[in-house]
Write a structure and sequence with these properties.
The protein is an alpha+beta fold. It folds into 2 domains: 77 residues, no CATH class; 33 residues, no CATH class. Helix content is 32%, strand content 15%. The protein contains 4 helices and 4 strands. The strands form 2 sheets. The chain has a two-stranded antiparallel ribbon with strand order 1-2. Strand 3 and strand 4 form a beta hairpin. The longest helix has 13 residues. It is extended and about 55 Å long. The relative contact order is 0.17.
Length: 120
């Protein structure tokens, strides 16, 4: 079951953080540098980490649910903002375009793509 948190419950001061990020990206400063702090909340529940292989081959609904559980158990201070990185890199994009995804069990965090016209 995918969770649907109420908007901004994970970062109630998002408008302030966005203003500081925009100012920083414009090469300016308001009154201090950006500060990004994350820490477990008091009610924090352990959530197992995902591996790169999980993010590539795993069930997307389960990955999103796990990412939301992590975010709900994390304090985002200053300009820290909850984020989820599904790991769609150049090899995964190549696969979407028809290449073959290659993976070695000896290298759990590495994959590569082979353009199908070069295979056999």
């Amino acid at each position: 079951m995918t969770r649907n948190p109420t908007p901004l419950t994970l970062k109630p001061d998002l408008a302030d953080a966005a203003k500081r990020w925009n100012t920083y990206l414009a090469g300016e400063i308001i009154d201090r540098p950006l500060v990004m702090v994350t820490a477990p909340t008091e009610r924090s529940e352990p959530v197992s980490a995902t591996t790169y292989r999980d993010r590539v081959f795993g069930n997307l609904n389960e990955l999103v649910d796990r990412a939301l559980r992590v975010a709900e158990n994390t304090f985002y201070g200053g300009e820290a903002i909850p984020a989820f990185w599904p790991s769609f890199g150049p090899d995964e994009i190549a696969v979407f375009c028809g290449a073959e995804l290659c993976w070695s069990d000896d290298s759990g965090d590495t994959n590569w793509s082979i353009e199908s016209r070069l295979i056999g």
